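Retry 2 of 3 after timeout on previous attempt. Resubmitting structure tokens to design endpoint.
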């Protein structure tokens, strides 16, 4: 379970990797949350939004690590898949809210409490950031510490 989760837009992997030690700060458009498992969340969101399989996404290595080591307890920068970014940016607000409720319900089944209102706020805000990312021709990344 992560302590800090910050989504951010960056022009490329190399630029995104530079923030692994300090986080994106004000250098990039960003959105911060905390206390959820980022890796599970993004594959679950993508599976809900694109009718894909969580297992297939995990086997494909999603989300992709750009910097840091996921197993050493330090900070990590992940790249969100183009498919997820497209799905987030193209989804209607009602679809994003539905995805958030599905996600909160799935997490509750595993004993993880995520307030549905917070989940809706998070996924809706992430959809807006994904749209902005597309306008900037940037990728969408996440810093986890």
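Retry 2 succeeded. Sequence:
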């Amino acid at each position: 379970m992560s302590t800090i989760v910050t989504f951010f837009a960056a022009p490329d992997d190399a630029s995104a990797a530079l923030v692994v030690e300090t986080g994106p700060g004000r250098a990039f458009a960003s959105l911060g949350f905390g206390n959820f498992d980022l890796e599970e969340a993004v594959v679950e969101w993508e599976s809900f939004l694109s009718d894909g399989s969580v297992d297939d996404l995990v086997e494909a290595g999603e989300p992709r690590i750009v910097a840091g080591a996921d197993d050493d307890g330090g900070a990590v920068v992940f790249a969100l898949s183009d498919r997820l970014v497209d799905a987030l940016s193209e989804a209607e607000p009602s679809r994003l809210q539905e995805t958030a409720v599905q996600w909160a319900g799935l997490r509750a089944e595993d004993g993880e409490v995520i307030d549905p209102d917070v989940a809706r706020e998070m996924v809706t805000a992430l959809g807006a950031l994904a749209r902005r990312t597309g306008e900037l021709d940037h990728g969408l990344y996440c810093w986890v510490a």
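Attempt log closed. The radius of gyration is 14 Å.
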